[in-house]
Amino acid sequence: MFNCLKRHWPEYLMEAGELGIFMFAACVVVAILEHPASPLHQAIPNPLLRRVLTGISMGLTAICIVYSPWGKQSGAHFNPSFTLTFFRLGKVEAADAVFYGVAQFVGGMAGVVLTAAVIGSPIGHPSVNYAATVPGAQGSAVAFVAELLISFLQMTVVLKVSNHRRLARFTGFFAGTLVACYISLEAPFSGMSMNPARTLASAVPAQLWTGLWVYFAAPPLGMLLAAELYLRKKGIAGINCAKLHHQNNKRCIFCECRQETEARRSPVIVLKASAGTER
C-alpha cells in the first residue's frame, strides 16, 4: 500500500484537485443563479431555465476536467463510485482505490471550504446552501431510484464509449453531456449527485444530513450493476482501462500495475511450461 502511495501520490492529489475544482464551480454557479440578490437570478425568473444553465455550466466543467492535464493522467474519476466500480472490474488496484477515495472526499470538502472563503456568506444562504444535494419533494425513496438510474446510465455509457475504438476519445464529452442533462431534468428528484464525496462535501458545512444514505448507496449500486451487466455481455477483455481519456501521453498507473502483475506471473508460467517439456 505504501509503495503505491510513494509512486502514485501525484494522481491522488490530482483526483482531490479535480473534485475540489468541480465543487468550487458548483458552489459559485449555484450562488450566481440562485441567490435572491444575484442580478442573474433576478434576470432569469424561470427555475427550469436556471437549472438548465447550471447543468450546462457543470457539464462543461466536467468535460474540462476530463480533458485537462490532471484528468488525462489520473483518469478523471473524481467520484468514489467510479473508482469502486473500476476496482470491481479489476482495473484499479486495491491500494489505489483506497487512496483515490480518500483524496476525492478530502478534495471535495476543500473545494467547498475554499469557495466559502472566497464568496463569503452568500454560500450559506438557504437558496444556495453550499450547493447541497437533498431528496426532492417526493422523498428519499424516489431520490434513491433516481440516483440509481442516472448512475446506472452514466457508467453504462462510459463503459460503452470508452471501450469503443472510434469513440473512446470522446468519453469525456458523453459523460459531461449526461451531467448537464441530469442537472437540468433529474435534479428536482434528488439534487443530482451520483457522487458520495460530492454530497458529503456540501452536507458537512451546511450541516444538512437529509437522505444522506441515498447518496452513499444508490450511486455505487447503480454503477456496479451497470458494470456487472457489461461484464456479462462483453467480458473482462472488453474493458481496456479505468481512465476516461486514455489517448494521451500521460502515464497510466492502471496500465502500469497490470503490466507489472503480468510480468510477475509470466516467469511462473514459463517455468511450468519448461517443466512440462522436460517430462
Question: Can you summarize this structure?
Answer:
The chain has 279 residues and is mainly alpha-helical.
Provide keyphrases for this structure:
12 helices, Glycerol uptake facilitator protein, globular, mainly alpha
Characterise the protein shown here.
The chain is mostly helical and 279 residues long. The chain has one domain: Glycerol uptake facilitator protein, CATH 1.20.1080.10. It has helices spanning 2-34, 39-43, 47-66, 69-74, 80-88, 94-119, 140-162, 171-185, 187-190, 196-206, 212-234, 253-278. Helix 1 (2-34) packs parallel to helix 6 (94-119), helix 5 packs parallel to helix 11 and helix 10 packs antiparallel against helix 11 (212-234). It is globular, with a radius of gyration of 20 Å.
Determine the number of helices (DSSP H or I, runs of at least 4 residues).
12
CATH architecture: Up-down Bundle
End-to-end distance? 40 Å
Q: Would you tell me which CATH topology applies?
A: Glycerol uptake facilitator protein
* Net shape: globular
The main pleated sheet reads as: none
How would the blueprint of this fold be written?
Layout: H1 2-34, H2 39-43, H3 47-66, H4 69-74, H5 80-88, H6 94-119, H7 140-162, H8 171-185, H9 187-190, H10 196-206, H11 212-234, H12 253-278
